[in-house]
Amino acid sequence: LRHLITLQNLNAATLVHLLDRAEALRVASAHGTRKLDLLHGRTVLNLFFEASTRTRTSFELAARRLDADVVNFDIANSSTNKGETLLDTLHTLEAMHLDALIVRHREGGTPDFMVRHAASGVSVINAGDGHHAHPTQGLLDALTVRQHRRNFDALTVTICGDVLHSRVARSDVHAFSTLGVRELRLCGPRALLPGAEEFPGCVLGDDFDAMVAGSDVVIMLRLQKERMIATLLPDEDAYFARYGLTSARLKRAAPGALVLHPGPINRGIEIASEVADGVQSRILEQVANGVFVRMAVLAELLAR
Ligand code: CP
Questions:
Q1: What residues does L-aspartate bind to (predicted)?
Q2: Same domain, yes or no, for 125 and 203?
């Protein structure tokens, strides 16, 4: 791998290799090996044009734990505000001899654009572009599930919420379908579901009570208000009544079903606090796994 833009074209062997590498890093960390020198002398730049807590922090921690030099580009105080174009920004930063650019942008396709225009030695990692892809989130979700359920082919995975605007849903679908889950269900209000042609092989529906029934994994999504035209925004109380994951609704899933959410969570809109903080919630495990997945990706792309 030179770049990581999407999981769409990665085969199962590549996904499993990345998950195995992340798991090995997690186990090593649990046994006290938190720092490695695999990226000593390498320089990684976090270039986040959209807000982030989990992804940006975990990429920074991951790079530091591999002994890379890390720069967090401060967009708010950068010359982007003086009108510098994305391409000029890219070439300016590259002139400082970077090894990797980790980019998040509201426009889908921005990481691809950077691959096309970046110097040949620079790796580009997509940290989320529009509603297109969030590949490291797909990987960390798969790792979290695999830590609890060994056989993907025995699993029904339901993703519920604002699927239309969700890059997480798309990367999760790519990861879980390639890893061979038995059934993938996508649920949400009709207005927030994409066309079935985008997700061949998935079951789409708007009845969450029916879709959650028997699910082994339930992945809840945030309403992406920042990507929505106002007319799509549902009434939050009505939305919670039909699509919120409550304890009562979770009882319809398979016993001990895993509850995931990429965060940030909207308590009382897509998930009840009793579920987000409950025994079936794996949300903070997802966050912890994010560091190991990002270490694995950085090591895979950059280690000599
Ligand atoms: N899951 C995720 O991308 O979270 P952040 O927006 O906080 O990075």
A1: 82, 167, 222
A2: no
Which atom of ligand 1 is nearest to 263's Cα?
A: 1
Atom 3, ligand 1: which residue's CA is nearest?
A: 55
Q: Is 137 annotated as a binding residue?
A: yes
Over range 77-93, report the average pLDDT.
92
CA-proximal residue: ligand 1, atom 4 (nearest) = 54
CATH at 45? 3.40.50.1370
Question: What is the count of structural domains for the chain?
Answer: 2
pTM over 0.80: yes
Q: Is pLDDT of 11 > 90? A: yes
The rounded Å distance from CA 104 to ligand 1 centre is 10
| Ligand 1 pocket, residue 57 CB under 6 Å | no
Instruction: For residue 182, say whether it is annotated as part of any ligand binding site.
Output: no
Question: Counting beta carbons within 10 angstroms of the beta carbon of residue 13, is it exposed (0 to 12), middle (13 to 18) or buried (19 or more)?
Answer: exposed
| Atom nearest to 50 CA in ligand 1 | 6
Which residues, 6+ apart, have CB-to-CB distance to 137 below 8 Å? 55, 128, 167, 168, 171, 172, 262, 290
Is 102 a residue whose pLDDT tops 80? yes
Q: Are 105 and 126 spatial neighbours (Cβ–Cβ below 8 Å)?
A: no
**pLDDT above 80: residue 300:** yes
Whether residue 17 lies inside any domain: the answer is: yes
- Same domain membership, residue 157 and residue 252: yes
Does ipTM top 0.95? yes
Q: Which domain holds residue 224?
A: 149-281
Computed over every residue of the chain, the mean pLDDT equals 95
